[in-house]
Amino acid sequence: MNKKEQVFKKLDELKIPYEVIYHEAVFTIEEMNDLGISNDGDVVKNLFLRDAKGKRHFLVVMDKDKKADLQSIQQQLGSTVLSFASENRLEKFLQLSKGAVTPLGVINDTKALVEVIFDKELIGKTRLGVHPNDNRATIWISFDNLKTLIEKNGNDIKYITI
Fold it and tell me: Which domain covers residue 94, as residue numbers?
């Protein structure tokens, strides 16, 4: 079973409704915009970050049009200096590759080590666009249902202002 099918299976097990659209591989928000995917809901941007010592890892989820201020995020999380985690760490913790980062990657985080950080503005959104661990598809899911999946996996969730 591939990573995308694992996401569908987990969503179905949890009885979480979703819609899926298939498209060519996209690696940036601009490419998603060019395909018109962003017109169907609130597409999110995802950053995989680590603290200075590599002890804590964060998956920051925010609206596609926002710019992340790592210093502000660091302060709100009470963390040491934040930086982007390496592709090796992304693979190790979420079994994802660059360009396919998604909050649905937590289903691969069997020890629930990654802290998921949501921009507060996403709370209550009914149509968030995220990759199903594969950047050749986009899933539409409500914020509440996405939060449920992450909680069921055991990952900590925090809310910040971006």
Answer: 3-10+18-160
